[in-house]
Please model this.
Amino acid sequence: EDVLKRGATHRGIEIKVEKRLASCVEEVMSDGPVGCRAKRFRLVLMLRESGCPLNFFGPAGAPRASVREGKGILVVLGGVRDLTELEEVSVHEACQRLGIPQRLASLGHVPELTSKCIKIMEGAASVGFLHDALRACADANWRVRDPDALGQKRERRTPLHIVVELKELRLAEFVSRFEAAVLLVDVFRGSHHSNDDCCLSVLDCEGQALTVRNRDCQGVLRESEALVCLKAQLVRARPAKLGDVLSHE
Model:
């Protein structure tokens, strides 16, 4: 090691200088050589519960032409853990050097799993809702939310009932599929918390319905555990129509 530090060369050895985090972040966000890099994105969104709310709604058949408007946007969020202060600073400094606007955006007032955040953003972009939500935030000057008010909202969340209709599958078939395990996680699990005020109803192609609550399935983060839970709940399935399910809950 000391020999290499003195600058000696050895056949078959390639000496690389470890890149700083800031350099790596800027490399991801830009094109071209160091010193004359061009920005790769037109906007950087930092997902925070206190950010400007991205409200995804619109009439049926929203124009898909707006999907293209979402391109050139980098969404920064934690994966498994939250971003460290150094990582946040590196993103901020890279935005300043490259001249990329950086904004705080929110997908809700409770923290969610990274996988759910990614699916929400992809889904909103695919139907043209993302562009409208970004434009609404821009019109509101990217107004952020009061952290104290967020705490109050978390304490009085409105109960949510999600209903999934299976057009071509029976319940017995659905509860053995990967999609069923993912659905349980999406409905009942957030980041470091469970959604106790949610319930999930599944209606199959033969008119059978199954309603599941968070207390019915405690271990769902692993696919195998989620599917075991669903299969155990099959004995509670009953004949029902959509109206019956909604009125019962």
Remarks:
- The chain has two domains: 21-148, 158-248.
- The CA atoms of residues 1 and 32 lie 33 Å apart.
- The longest strand covers residues 43-53.
- The chain has a mean pLDDT of 81.
